[in-house]
Amino acid sequence: MTNIANNTVLNMMVLHEEALAKLYTVFCEKIPEMRDFWYELVREEKGHAEVLRHLSKKLGGEIKSFNSRKFNVTALATSLDFLSERTDRFQKKGIGILKSLAFALDQEQSMLENKYFEVFESDSPEIRKDLDLLRKHTSKHAGRVKKAMESIKGES
Ligand SMILES: [Fe+2]
Q1: DSSP helix/strand/coil, 156
Q2: 59 secondary structure, DSSP code
Q3: How far is ligand 1, taken at its centre, from the CA of residue 135, in Å?
Q4: Model pTM score
Q5: Are 117 and 131 in contact, with CB atoms under 8 Å apart?
Q6: Where does 65-124 have alpha helices with state H?
Q7: Is 8 helix (H, G, I), strand (E, B) or coil?
Q8: Angle at 106 between CA 117 and CA 45, to 5 degrees
Q9: Candidates 1.20.1260, 1.10.20, 3.30.360, 2.60.40; CATH matching 3-155
Q10: Which has more pLDDT, 52 or 121?
Q11: Nearest-angstrom CA–CA distance, 107 and 98
Q12: Could you list which residues have their CB under 5 Å from ion ligand 1?
C-alpha cells in the first residue's frame, strides 16, 4: 500500500474521531443533565483526532513503517455515513438518556471489536504506542458509558 493510501486511512480515522466528538456534542445539548459526562468525551475524542492528525503528518514521508493492508476502508466509510446520518437525526429529533448511552456504547464497542486501532502493523515503537493509547482510551470510554448506563438503569 502506498504512503498516500496510508494517509487516506489515517485521515478517515481522524474524521471518525471528529464524528464521535460531534455526536457527543449533540448529546451534550440534548441531555443537559449529563452535560459534563458527554463534554468530557467530546474533549477526549477531539484529542484522539489530534493524535491521529499528528501521526498522519509524521508519516508524511515514510512508506514502509506503516502497513494498513488489513484495514477495511469501505467499512469505515459506511460507519462514518451512518454516524453522521444518526447525529443529524438526534440533532433534529432529540434522544433520551438510555438511548444515547446505548448508541455511544455500541459505537465504542464496535471499534474495539473490529480491532480498529490494531489494524496497523508498524515497526515504529512510537506509532505503536500512540495507537495502543487510543485503543486503551476507547476501552475506557466503553467502560464509562456502560457504567453510566447501569447506574441509570438501577435508578429507574
Ligand atoms: Fe471514544
Answers
A1: coil
A2: G
A3: 9
A4: 0.89
A5: yes
A6: 73-93, 97-113
A7: helix
A8: 50
A9: 1.20.1260
A10: 52
A11: 14
A12: 138, 141
For the chain, give every domain's residue range.
3-155
Quote the Cα angle for 82-86-89, to 5°. Answer: 145
- pLDDT grade, residue 74 (50/70/90)? confident
Calculate how far, in angstroms, residue 87's C-alpha sits from the geometric centre of ligand 1: 15
One-letter amino acid at 17 equals E
Under a CB-based contact definition with an 8 Å cutoff, are residues 68 and 117 in contact? no
Give the helix/strand (H/E) hosting 35.
helix 35-58
Is residue 19 within 8 Å of 49, Cβ to Cβ? no
Query: Radius of gyration of the chain from Cα atoms?
Result: 16
156's grid cell: 429507574
